[in-house]
Amino acid sequence: MSxxxxxxxxxxxxxxxxxxxxxxxxxxxxxxEDIARAxxxxxxxxxxxxxxxxxxxxxxxxLKNISMEVPEKQIxxxxxxxxxxxxTLLRSINRLNDLVPSVRVDGDILFEGESxxxxxxxxxxxxxxxxxxxxxxxPFPKSIYENVAYGCRIQGISxxxxxxxxxxxxxxxxxxWDEVKDRLDDVATGLSGGQQQRLCIARAIAVEPEVILFDxxxxxxxxxxxxxxxxxxxxxxxQYTQVIVTHNMQQASRIxxxxxxxYLGELIEYGPTxxxxxxxxxxxxxxxxxxRFG
Amino acid sequence: xxxxxxxxxxxxxxxxxxxxxxxxxxIENSRRALLDRDSGxxxxxxxxxRKVDETEKQIDELCHGVLALQQPTAVDxxxxxxxxxxxxxxxxxxxxxxxxxxxxxxxHGEPPFGAYGEAGALFLAARRMVSESLDAFLRxxxxxxxxxxxxxxxxxxxxxxxxxxxxxxxxxDRQAVAPTFQLILIGRSLERIADHATNIAEDxxxxxxxVDIRHAETDYGSAKKGV
Lengths: 294, 227
Hints:
By secondary structure, chain A is α/β, with parallel strands linked by helices.
């Protein structure tokens, strides 16, 4: 070892090493320069847009001036530690937060250019166009067939042949058809957890939404069932705009095209998933995804 | 938050620096073997190569373990990618030092030959590039890595001059042909060692800045992360 290398090695021994520690030279410039780009990636064909969106639960502000666009027919992941506001942001998109009495919002969320908070907005229609799959699968206590057909019946479709087609198409799209085609009249709650979650996806897509929101859809599933849901999301990526909230960063990196990192109600970084996970712009993002906090 | 995995990263870093130290010593000893006409030292350098090869395998195994078990991201991932590429370059530098020492032994079978030209300067410049690229890695110093990267052209110029002067000397002295051939081989190995140091510098810049400057026509100012 040269004297200089040796001296540097010895001098560094007193400081615990980590790959992302303080650097010499200009290495820290990337973190200190203007970071506007960190939250504004190039989005073509945006379908959802948050504009300075704020949300309060009573006195507590849960979302602070979130501005971002969600691209059409791609998968966007929201990541961040518990309480960062990612599920609140997701639930604001189809106004599920309306059901919480103390909620107050400011700013706006646009869906295809129209505010989702407009006085004329029919929330039932909004939630048909923007479907949702929850953390815990929640099939109705009905048959497999009726679970998928339910939303269509509400919309007034009653013709059996048409319903049969929709049920089969939806179950095929959610990769469940082969497993349940011979027992469509069985009660849905008898399915495994993973199958129930895919049934919920089938139920969501039966009404032909444009956007599907996933709120930690795999957190209660084993790795095989999780892999099936992830494969299914990839299969569906060119048909639907998908937004997923996940605590599992490997899941976000595996399946999403864009990743948004939220922390304490703020959008810290938003960009193509590969950039965020290989070369994040902001130190907070790096610290979170490398497990140094969170 | 301190992470247990940081101990593994530190172990990898220390192992890489130990490998770098071995390789730098091989370059220095091959220089001394040439200038002191010491064939015994040349043989010892060749024997050292096994240690370098072993260390490369050990470091790669450590990196594979972290990749498989920790699923690193961001700077952790770039660190591991850079280390695995740097070990390959250092291993090649070790092989080139062995090639130099083989030429040194062949050269010593010839009558004494005085005109080593700029061989000493090439040795020092190549070793300095290896040393500074490793310092840049250790300090996470992208500026120093960039300096090393820019210096490669300078070494190329010295090497070309070295070859030209040696060839000129063979015009008047036909007995100089065989030793000149060996010296050109030595110069060629040193020029390639400098190329490997340049690769290491590129890996350091990728690790620190996340910018890939390989095959860039100008310096990384134009490729630098536009934040």
